[in-house]
Each structure stands twice: as structure tokens, then as C-alpha cells.
Amino acid sequence: MVYLTGETMGSSWNVHIAQEVAQVAKERIQSMIEMVLEEVNQQMSPFIPQSEISLFNDNPSTAPIALSPAMYYVVRQALTLCEQTDGVYDITVEPLVNIWGFGAKEVKSHPDDAQVADTLRYVNYRYLSLTEEGLRKEYPQTRIDLCSIAKGYGVDKVAEVLEKEGIHHYLVEIGGELRLSGSRYDQAWRVGVERPQWGGGVYEHMLTFKEVTIGVATSGNYRNYFKDKEKVASHEINTQTGYTKVSEILSVTVLAENCMLADGYATALFLLGEKAIEFAEKQQIAALFIVNDDSHEKGYALRISSAFARFINAK
Known about the structure:
Layout: E1 2-8, E2 11-17, H1 23-44, H2 52-58, H3 69-84, H4 94-99, H5 113-120, E3 128-131, E4 134-137, H6 147-164, E5 170-174, E6 177-181, E7 189-194, E8 203-209, E9 214-220, E10 225-228, E11 231-234, E12 249-256, H7 259-272, H8 276-283, E13 286-292, E14 300-304, H9 306-314
Antiparallel strand pairs: 1-2, 2-5, 3-4, 5-6, 6-9, 7-8, 9-12, 10-11, 12-13, 13-14
Helix pairs in contact: 1-6, 3-7, 6-7, 7-8
């Protein structure tokens, strides 16, 4: 097994290659992956002041702003998700992300009601319009955040590097989001789904994949959170209320044709709450839900969509 690793997007990236790779090729692939991920960061990281997304957010113009092909592609997919969920998933969430302490600026306490209400005035994906000329915002104060989909896109870009090098048996992971292809030396790739608990870290449910190319992403409220005294705020924010999301869904794991789609859909389904399973059925999304259920000994239960069930039954 060839193993490559590094740091990106405030997390780590890991690549497992289940085929022979010469040392010189290994070094070249490592370098190419680092270059690709640096490019994604320079395009989509809100934590880099001169990134493409930061420059868009800081630009007060309400005229169309030209985007790089990569940004255009990701924004277009994200806006499709916004429309499909009627704004429950909303990339103009960035100002709310900041006041709740999940953005680039440090926050020591939760926002009060007045601050939330004031921030909400400029949060609505309908204030954006994407055309061939670029991305336009109706108000200078409207800002976008692609963190819910950019990590998955980064995984796909790393997979592209491997495919171009003739590597077809691999697992790519960035911060828990995955793309798998082929097999692990004639064995299935095994992916763990965490038991929901604050901080995460305990894998209890295993998924296996063999001779498929698939993206896998999970969204939940137990890994990324902000604590203010005794109150805990989830990083998933309801853009229609301005407050962090409280849901019976503890986590959602999605399987999709690529990791960008899986990443975006996982976030959208988590935010949809009680409407999530209905949405997954309508959109034919393969999703595994871990939901709060006090009637079970462990305090939670599993729910799966029809598309997820078909995937399991087909193996």
C-alpha cells in the first residue's frame, strides 16, 4: 500500500494507493496533489484574505464579478442545491458563520438576537445571480461560503491527479470526506461511520466498497461545534432563522458519483431535518441517517433511503 499525506483546509489529506507506484512517481504525485489543493484553497478558502472567494466577498460592487472556471463550476453546483432545498441550504450563510464563531475571526460569545436579525438581512441565495459574465450580488454586504462543498471538490481534484497517473485503485480522504475507486488489493475498501458523540472518533458502522468509484461524505453536529459557557452551538446554521441548527438528525452519510455532490447533499440533508428523508427519496440520494431515538438502548437509530438500500442490496 502506498500512503501519501499532508495538510490542507484546516485538516489533513490522506491518499491510499492499492497498486504499485515507483518512488519517483510517488514523489511527483505528492507534489501534484499539494499543488492542486493549494489552488483550491486559493480559490475557495474564506480563511485566506486574498483567495478568490475572499476577494469576491470583500468587493462592494453589485456588478457581475468574473470567476475562475473552478469557482464557476462549484458555485453553479452549490446554487443548484440552494434551489433544490428552497434555501434551506444557502451559500450566503458566511456572515452567520462568522458571528457564530466558525469563520476566520475569533468570537468569544454567542451573538444576541439583534445581531442575528441584522446579519440575516443580507443572507439569501436569491440575492446572487450567476451568468456567463460572472457572479453578481444584489447587496454589497452579501457574502458566500463554499466550505460545505469545497472540501468534496478538493477530494475530486486529488482523484483526478491519480486517474491521470494511471492509478485506479485508491482512497482519497480530506477531513473525513472520501472518494474511493477500485479495490484494496482484491479486498473491499472499508469505511467507518462514527458513532455520534461530541468530538467524534468512535467508528461503529462499517461500509464496504469494491470495484466502484464513489464519493462518501458525512455531515453532523458532534465534531465541529462552538461552546460558550454551558451552551453548545452546532456549526450547521439555519439560514432562515439565523440560529444554529437543532435537529433530531445526528449525522447524515451520503454516497454519490463524486465527493463534491456527496459533500453538498450531506450538509443539505442535515439542515433539512425532518424533511430530509423525503428529500432524499425525491432526489434519489443514497443516504444513511443516524437519528436521535430515546427508545433505543444507544439513544439513536439508523434510517436509510431507498437509494442507499439499493446500493447495499446490489453488493
